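Lay summary. Proteins are chains of building blocks that fold into shapes, and those shapes determine what they do. In this project we predict the shape from the chain. Here is one chain we studied, written as its sequence of building blocks.
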Amino acid sequence: MRILFTLLLSLGMLGGCQTSNNSTQTDTLEGEWQLELETLTIGEQKYTTFDGTNREMKKIFTDSHFAFSSIGTNRPRFSSYSLTKEQKAIAFDNFGGSLGRYSYENNILTEHIEYSSFPNYEGVSIPFKITIMGDTMIQEGNYPLIELGLGEQDGYLRATFKRIK
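And here is the predicted shape, written in a compact code that computers can read:
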């Protein structure tokens, strides 16, 4: 379950787009998005991987890059940079992120992940279908669990975001 959570934490962190001159703010990826709900279906099993109850997840798109971060809502403060193994685990569990370049054409977003707090994602490109309706964005598509070394079967990811900037 921890691997699945970390995987899903890292997934949402991907994205990008190129806009044409006739694009409006409401139909472009550029800006800041808040993840509201994310599910991963593997075979007949559907998992809710994010519902906002104990984490906040944001994705930011520029004209060529994306960044994604996930922060636990109950993160403790530490009194020193010298952390115990337990404190390091808490810190890792309460923050995740990825960034890289992206391409966006014909409603297909391909995230080219360059850096990630979960190294299995680095160097991987993942395509998603994007649907934008007003301030809501749906990102969905096949999720390469096998390529990422995180499962014996690929899944299907569906994420719902709200535009916040």
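What the prediction tells us: The CA atoms of residues 22 and 28 lie 10 Å apart.
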